[in-house]
Amino acid sequence: MIETVELPSLVARVMAELKKRDVSGSLSGNVASSAVESVSIPTGSGSEVDRSVAAAVLAQEHRHREYDIRRRTNIIARLREDMTRHVEELARFSLEETGMGNLKDKKAKILLAIEKTPGPEYFATKAVSGDNGLMLEELSPFGVIASLCPSTNPVATVINNTICMLAAGNAVVFGPHPGALRSTLRTVELVNLSLRDNGAPFGLVSALSEVSLEAMNALMTHGNVRLISATGGPGVVKAALSSGKPTVGAGPGNPPVLVDETADIEKAAKDIIAGCSFDNNLPCIAEKELLVVNCVADKLKRCMTENGAFEISDPALIRKLETTVLTEQGTVNKAFVGKDASHILERIGVAAPEGVRLILVETDESHPFAQEELLMPLLPMIRVPDFDAGLTAAKRLEHGFRHSACIHSNHVKRLSDMAREMETTMFVKNAPSYAAIGVDSDAPTAFTIATTTGQGATTPLSFCRTRRCVLSGAFRIV
């Protein structure tokens, strides 16, 4: 149950939480200026929010009425092709703007969103016939969606949500994160160029060019916005839920990974490093703490340090690391979110070895490194006596978010037991955490993991409503 909160005050807190750096409404540089011109609705009477939503209403109504599934499918197929040409540019742009993550993995995330986001092929009509006639259920668009974007995955989230929302027949107005305003606008600009060139109506996709309390509040509460999609921290999701609108809400996570004595330890070590260090641990599904059965802990640690992990065991250095990446209150120092492991090591006076991908520190369960979602390539390792103790600790550390968890084991019953006990939306067995979003797996991708509101890994179906039509006493042929 979400507590009753006045939306303006709640949004103010959210905006303060989001602004880890000062980002003004004006943009500099040719690319940023071009983005504003391309994605903003032309000036006229009313606010930018009013104009954007009004254009989206007209575009969505026209497209829903005039565009059949075949045309919708073709437009999205061309959008995938067009966006593929800009992967390098968008990855560099978002890295330069946010200062978080790394270029290689940002490119991988953007390609993932382009290639593996589900489209119109996800839809199917349900028909039931009987003695009394025919019942037909079809999926229908909501209309205009307000989509609030994160700074951790701004480009991939815009592409992923655009494909899903358009496939479902909606229009969308994006509310950028203040720390990723320019890269969000540039992504939406490129989306619009593709849509325009392929016959989609103007206004189908847009983004607010100015981020403010008033704009965020106005977008979420606008009378013609029918659904809100909120990807971000708990404050963002709470603000969206407090708007009174149907909401697709991606909540927080603190994903544990458990390794037992039956696991392939060498593979587990490589998988954990790959998942935990992916884009410097920015994905919400990435391993955030490691629990390992004690009898294989030393072997796992050795395999990890041989494959890109750097262990810090000196108590004085651990204390220095704590004061560097945590605030005085024990919360995450946002200046180090998404930074390279080498950068963090250098800040505590340690010469980073070549190829280092993550920092490994042995802690106990109560340590802030384990309790907080750090969003950086720093992995606390906690020894447990056996699988049962590890599972119990994993449940505590996940904090009941029911977001994501991983296990490495060759014990079939334990694989099932942990999946049932954790009740997480995403659960990965014997693979890096990123398998949950389609990297080196057959899963479709999603960058909005709607744990709070229950839709799970979003697809076009997440942005539809079900409509039923009943025909009495007719249409059966047998």
Explain this structure to me?
By secondary structure, the chain is an alpha/beta fold. 41% of the residues lie in helices and 18% in strands. The chain is built from 17 helices and 17 strands. The protein has helices spanning 7-18, 30-39, 48-66, 69-84, 87-98, 103-116, 154-167, 181-197, 213-221, 234-241, 265-277, 297-305, 315-325, 341-347, 368-371, 387-397, 412-422; strands spanning 126-130, 133-141, 144-148, 171-175, 205-207, 225-231, 247-250, 256-259, 289-293, 309-311, 358-362, 378-384, 404-408, 426-429, 449-450, 456-457, 464-472. Strands 10-11-12-9-8-13-14 form a seven-stranded parallel β-sheet, with helices on both faces. It has a five-stranded parallel β-sheet with strand order 5-4-3-6-7, sandwiched between helices. Strands 1-2-17 form a three-stranded antiparallel β-sheet, with no helix packed on it. The protein is globular, with a radius of gyration of 23 Å.
- How far do the termini sit from each other? 49 Å
Rounded to an integer, what's the Rg over CA atoms? Answer: 23 Å
- Which structural class is indicated by helix and strand composition? alpha/beta
Name the beta content range: 15-25%
Question: What is the tally of beta strands?
Answer: 17
Q: State the shape.
A: globular
